[in-house]
Amino acid sequence: MERVKAAIVGASGYTGQELVRRLLLHPHVELTAATSRQEEGRTLAEVYPRFAGIPGAELAFIQPDPQAIAATGATFAFLALPHGVAAEIGRALLDLGLRVIDLSADFRIHDAGVYEEFYDHAHPAPDLLAEAVYGLPEVRADDIKAARLIASPGCYPTSILLPLLPLLREKLIVPATIVANSMSGVSGAGRKADLSLLFCECNESARAYGVPKHRHLSEIEQELTIAAGEKVVISFIPHLIPVNAGIVTTTTATLADGVDPEAIGAALERAYAGEFFVRLLGKGRPADTKRVSGTNFIDIGWTHDPRTGRVILMSAEDNLGKGAGGQAIQSFNLMAGLDPTAGLQSV
Amino acid sequence: MERVKAAIVGASGYTGQELVRRLLLHPHVELTAATSRQEEGRTLAEVYPRFAGIPGAELAFIQPDPQAIAATGATFAFLALPHGVAAEIGRALLDLGLRVIDLSADFRIHDAGVYEEFYDHAHPAPDLLAEAVYGLPEVRADDIKAARLIASPGCYPTSILLPLLPLLREKLIVPATIVANSMSGVSGAGRKADLSLLFCECNESARAYGVPKHRHLSEIEQELTIAAGEKVVISFIPHLIPVNAGIVTTTTATLADGVDPEAIGAALERAYAGEFFVRLLGKGRPADTKRVSGTNFIDIGWTHDPRTGRVILMSAEDNLGKGAGGQAIQSFNLMAGLDPTAGLQSV
Amino acid sequence: MERVKAAIVGASGYTGQELVRRLLLHPHVELTAATSRQEEGRTLAEVYPRFAGIPGAELAFIQPDPQAIAATGATFAFLALPHGVAAEIGRALLDLGLRVIDLSADFRIHDAGVYEEFYDHAHPAPDLLAEAVYGLPEVRADDIKAARLIASPGCYPTSILLPLLPLLREKLIVPATIVANSMSGVSGAGRKADLSLLFCECNESARAYGVPKHRHLSEIEQELTIAAGEKVVISFIPHLIPVNAGIVTTTTATLADGVDPEAIGAALERAYAGEFFVRLLGKGRPADTKRVSGTNFIDIGWTHDPRTGRVILMSAEDNLGKGAGGQAIQSFNLMAGLDPTAGLQSV
Amino acid sequence: MERVKAAIVGASGYTGQELVRRLLLHPHVELTAATSRQEEGRTLAEVYPRFAGIPGAELAFIQPDPQAIAATGATFAFLALPHGVAAEIGRALLDLGLRVIDLSADFRIHDAGVYEEFYDHAHPAPDLLAEAVYGLPEVRADDIKAARLIASPGCYPTSILLPLLPLLREKLIVPATIVANSMSGVSGAGRKADLSLLFCECNESARAYGVPKHRHLSEIEQELTIAAGEKVVISFIPHLIPVNAGIVTTTTATLADGVDPEAIGAALERAYAGEFFVRLLGKGRPADTKRVSGTNFIDIGWTHDPRTGRVILMSAEDNLGKGAGGQAIQSFNLMAGLDPTAGLQSV
Question: What is the C-alpha to C-alpha distance for residues A223 and C298, in angstroms, rounded to an integer?
């Protein structure tokens, strides 16, 4: 089988690095381009000694020039760029005929006004919003297969949405009572020279941040609202904890009147029983980041507290895997008609 | 000034170790006894090489025999023992005339029935429950000064109660909407040979546990109920994260009808403005475990989310400090008529 | 191609877990048996939730009974057992016609007297020592291909031997001056309920241990002696550091009289230029555990200090990968006539 | 007793922060000035929320202007500045009548030529070198008491010198055979926005660096040479490991001909028996960073390997404590005629 040619635009951050790792080993992909403004001319192996020796790692970084990317023969491009920048280069690549999987927030919000409210600048390509597919493969596989432009969800949204969506669709919980607390590894903050991300600042530290209105709320509430069929507004409190990779999210919500608690487990089963990358742990079993790090799995456990009437959902994923690069490749596999698990089977 | 003679009963766990550390350096205390069933005859310095060279560290462990403890001249005893065991030895020490600061759960619950519900055995000394003072120095200083028996609060309860109590007393939040998520360092699980506490099992791991009915809910809800003047039942989800020491707690609750959000900050100021060990961070500023580790401080920040109507409280403490040994010594200082910060000024 | 049937005997420790991980994903292997005295009847996925959902993870643990293992059709057995125990079951499996890759120390020492000196008990199967091949694939590929019994080297020895062997064979350094300092992740100490391995004991800790005569010196000196053609005795100081996986070793030795320092790099190139799993970093470039964790690579850098006349060798490997399970599978691939990198390409 | 007025010049790095911590709590010191180019006008508590509430933490940072520093009444100045910068401001403060404790390398090397060789620039104040005292309190207490200018030793040198000096003075080991391997926590690299110091780059990582000619070799070899009475050149390999604070050093050297190995322990005892901050662990007992972190202790263990004839020295200290700020305050106490342990008794 001929390999699908793919490019990574913005390959020098942690998400880019995860895409490189996955695509170098992907059995049906040829990585034809990796871009970086700072690393031009150096090879993947030089910038990431971890990849030295792996076939393909001798590829040299190029500048993020759409024409040059297209000239490598790539038919797919993964964008691991800051928001705002992604939309511009994404449009150029689409115009050159590539299919685009954007890992930034740029195409995740359907409403350009909401984007501007949360990201503090006008949307750079509002005409593309209608076309972009919010790329949760377990939720929109058919749309993804046909899409030209995927807005691949962020790490927090994935860990919050997958447990909640089936419950909202089936009206098992009261939307206004949803509170999500997430704990994220430091790689989620990106690879940038910032004092607050130094080892000695993060190690032996745990803290909330970004309250009360984290940017990811925009996409989270958009998708919850679609599922619920009514406007949903939630509390979301992200925390930084000293692990390299992984997010664990605990979400509480009040069970809707008259609902049997066991309906929660049943709804999760209906939604995800056939999904390879969603592992349902069952009732009373917490999810643990250490079981999903380095993988594309999301683990979901749940329980019910009869004392308070609340459901407790517990999910864990690798923020760079199912929360970023892994999920993007999952969408890519669907788009390219490949085995859905190709390149994603590491444990 | 003559030093107050004190004993530590159960000095070989992490809480016991923290009490040893604090009391060896306490300017007004002479540590006359430290007990351990396993370490009898070895000195503090031998069991904890960290303390070698510190005056007093040549003290040898003895068996936890009440008569032997009293014979050392101790007038105060700190109990860092498992629940169930503490009550029995505590009673014996009280009968011998010592004042007792118990760090277990045994005397924290006023209602022996609630104790049995949460701890799965009948209370070993129900007649002492009426006398025991729940030892939050910022809440009950006068009772503590006069007490013969202190039930020193646990780490989770302290981090949840101190931010919430003033808000409930002033009826600023809706009690039924309280959800507390805590993240604890591994020392909170104790010093025991258990596979799940191994470095390789905890490092790069984060997970919830003990849901939905953690034992500490019994004391948390008891104290919240007293403050609110009505029965309070909450959701509490503890998590284990890979730090040695520290708890960060994020608590959400709906602002009561018609309350100005700024009343939250004002209530916290009124409650704690003169309290050395409670540091109010103000609005929008999260608490971070790294700023309180090794100290007896609790940091409290808060914010309000107009989108959801919820208040977000963020607190951080050292689970072995303000959450255990430090707070116990804070009560001891009050009981013994000492400077409230004696032995507790480390940063 | 038909899959090779293989068993893992002793699959509940960290090394066993790494073998399970690798063999479940190995494209040419069918894992037919995994044994554990404690976990009998539970599946791999139940004991290791990380593997849930992976094809093959529904295999249930059985007792380590040689007949039962052979009855699963396995033609290869990996032994991840304590020394002493491995020899006994290894012999039984050989007698039943299986080929055996032993990851314990039992067959690594050619001289039963040396074994007894270092392991404090008589060798349980001295008659098998002559047959066993010390399984360094980069050193003895031909012997490994034909072997019935492999003694797969330990993690410290691998990290020390691979850089040193070529230099001793070419007489570039003075054997009596060799000093090796290794820093190991905590998984190297095994998965056992031991207070000294608790998170809170290992985190924020670094220390030497096992000096001056660590057991692994027996195999290290045996192999160095063979390469040098003269008796070699070295200093080896292992240290425990707070990482899950990884060993970094720094070895110093005096350059032999009249040798051009550049001969060091040239000798390493000659020895390992064609070896996929040995990555030569070149002169002046240190090895870092983070680049090899989760892989079967060993990275080797070196430098020369003209002030002291010493060569400094710096190597890094994953102690569970190239230092244990990965290397064992590397030998297995040779024995079974498979692609040498099959199942070992993760980065 | 009147408090001694002291200033910290360069108080915004990790060493400066440790000096602030120690001096705020020092019973005989009033901190009158703390300087920082970037933080002018902010208080200590604002820049370091950890210190909020501690008396003295309301002090505001000023610019590092010698006149302004002197104007606060300070009679002592601690310099925690980069090399090159320290010499200039140090001279100005001396001229203004202050006594200076410099924690940079600027005054540690007696020979300006050696300084230039290792630090790549001409020495900025060579005329002061003769006067500066290399501030190892256990070695030069009398000189320190009388000194106007202390060159306080670095973290690696302290951990290497204290075990070795007595052995060289008594000619118990062969100087040319000394090899020192050190493992340092990340705080030793300073508080600067550098990608290589990010949490995700340092966590789960261990590596050598700075070989073969680390700058600290200049002061290490100078002091070893003085002790030995002959030129000493050694190998020193520093490593970075994922802990916040702490250095563990393992040093090997060949026992001199005819020396009884037990003479090693005896020499250490003679040198340090009365020294509060040097804890001799005895034969065969390794030092562990976790026992000294946060303290001013250095722990030293040793053993002898009859197989190789080598002595193995194992030392541990807090790189910010005995390796930097703690040791500087130890010298200060001597200079000011205070209790040698004042402000240094934390465990």
Answer: 46
C173 and C113 co-located in one domain: no
Domain termination residue (choose one: A131, A165, A198) = A131
- Residue C204 touches chain B, beta carbons under 8 Å: yes
The CA distance from D202 to D216, in Å, is 22
Contact residues, chain C, for D244 at CB < 8 Å: 204
pLDDT (tens digit, 9 = 90+) per residue, A77-128? 999 999 999 999 999 999 999 999 999 999 999 999 999 999 999 999 999 9
> What are C313's two structure tokens?
């060798």
Q: Give yes or no: residues A178 and A86 share one domain.
A: no
From the list C12, C10, C1, C24, the residue with the least C-alpha distance to C329 is: C24
Rounded CA separation C150/C100 (Å): 6
Asked whether C152 and C106 are in contact (CB, 8 A), the reply is: no
pLDDT tens, B9-63?
Answer: 999 999 999 999 999 999 999 999 999 999 999 999 999 999 999 999 999 999 9
**Which of B206, B287, B293 is nearest residue A207 as measured by Cβ atoms?**
B287
For chain D, the chains sharing at least 3 beta-carbon pairs closer than 8 angstroms are A, B, C
Give yes or no: residues D209 and D62 share one domain: no
Task: Tell whether D343 is covered by a domain.
Answer: no
Tokens of B322: 């303000």
Q: Is cis: bond before C286, omega within 30 of 0?
A: no
Same domain, C99 and C205: no
Count of the separate structural domains present in chain D: 2
d(CA D134, CA D105): 10
- Record: contact D345-B25, CB cut-off 8 A: yes
SS3 A130: coil
pLDDT tens digit sequence for C324-333: 999 999 999 9
Q: Which backbone phi and psi does C139 adopt, to 5 degrees?
A: -110, -35
Model confidence at B82, pLDDT cuts 50, 70, 90, reads very high
Residues B255 and B184 in one domain: yes
CB neighbour list of residue A270: distance below 8 Å, 6 or more residues apart: A166
Q: Are strands A179-184 and A247-254 parallel, antiparallel or unpaired?
A: antiparallel
Three-state secondary-structure class, residue B16 = helix
Measured distance CA(D155)–CA(D103) in Å, rounded: 10
B38 touching chain C per CB within 8 A: no
Look up the pTM and report it: 0.97
CATH number at residue D179: 3.30.360.10
Nearest residue on chain A to B303, judged by CA atoms? A212
Residue C327 touches partner B, C-beta closer than 8 Å: no
| Residue B220 forms part of a structural domain | yes
Question: Could you give the strand order of the β-sheet that contains C298-305, starting from the edge strand earlier in sequence?
Answer: C207-208, C235-240, C179-184, C247-254, C310-317, C298-305, C278-283
Element (H, E) at A133: strand A133-134
What ipTM was estimated for this complex?
A: 0.96
What is the span of the domain harbouring residue C224? 156-318
pLDDT digits (tens, 9 = 90+) for C84-96: 999 999 999 999 9
Does a structural domain hold residue C344? Answer: no
d(CA B39, CA B47): 8
Residues B308 and B185 grouped into a single domain: yes
- Cβ pairs A/D, distance under 8 A: 60
Which residue from C208, C211, C250 is facing D237, i.e. has the nearest CB? C250
Amino acid letter, residue D18:
E
Q: State how far the alpha carbon of B164 is from the alpha carbons of B67, B246, D95, in Å.
A: 41, 19, 56
Structural domain includes residue B192: yes
The residues of C annotated as belonging to the active site are 155
Give partners of B (≥3 CB pairs < 8 A): A, C, D
What does R_g of chain A's alpha carbons equal in angstroms? Answer: 20
